[in-house]
Amino acid sequence: MLYEKGMRMKKYEKRLVETNELVEVTCDICGKSCKSDCDFEYSSLIADWGFGSKHDGELWHYHFCMDCSEKLLVRINELRGSL
Ligand SMILES: [Zn+2]
């Protein structure tokens, strides 16, 4: 325990704080880990469909590794070109 002197004393206690640490992100297409040397590298698709929509109440949350993200980008551009 650490004490400070002054007008009002403060009292400190060491506490362990439980945190949620990200330890893994897995690609939703190929199943590979998205972990790089010091971080995670991935893209995300997040959709929170609104009331009355076809997917009312659904929450989509997908993660894609770099390789799959690049393939998706090609596919998106193909779809864009076909419209
Ligand atoms: Zn992948």
* Cα-atom radius of gyration: 23 Å
Name the quaternary structure. single chain
How far from one another are the termini? 68 Å
Average residue pLDDT: 91
As laid out across the biggest beta sheet, the strand order is 1-2
As residue ranges, the low-confidence spans are none
What percent of the residues sit in helical stretches (DSSP H or I)? Answer: 10-25%
Are any ligands bound, and if so which?
zinc ion
Shape call = elongated
Can you count the beta strands? 4
SSE string = EEEEH
β-strand percent reads: 15-25%
Number of domains: 1
Specify the structural class.
alpha+beta
Q: Can you summarize the main beta sheet?
A: 2 strands, antiparallel
Question: What is the tally of helical segments?
Answer: 1
Brief characterization of the structure:
This protein has 83 residues and is an alpha+beta fold. It contains 1 helix and 4 strands. The radius of gyration is 23 Å and the shape is elongated.
Please render the helix and strand layout as text.
Elements: E1 2-3, E2 11-12, E3 43-48, E4 59-64, H1 66-82
Antiparallel strand pairs: 1-2, 3-4
The structure holds zinc ion (ZN).
Residues 27, 29-30, 32, 64-65, 67-68 line the site of zinc ion.
Describe this structure in words.
By secondary structure, the chain is α+β, with helices and mostly antiparallel strands. It has one domain. The chain is 20% helix and 19% strand. It contains one helix and four strands, in the order ββββα. A two-stranded antiparallel ribbon has the order 1-2. The chain has a two-stranded antiparallel sheet with strand order 3-4. A hairpin with a 7-residue loop joins β1 and β2. The termini are far apart. The structure holds zinc ion. The site of zinc ion has 8 residues, from α1.
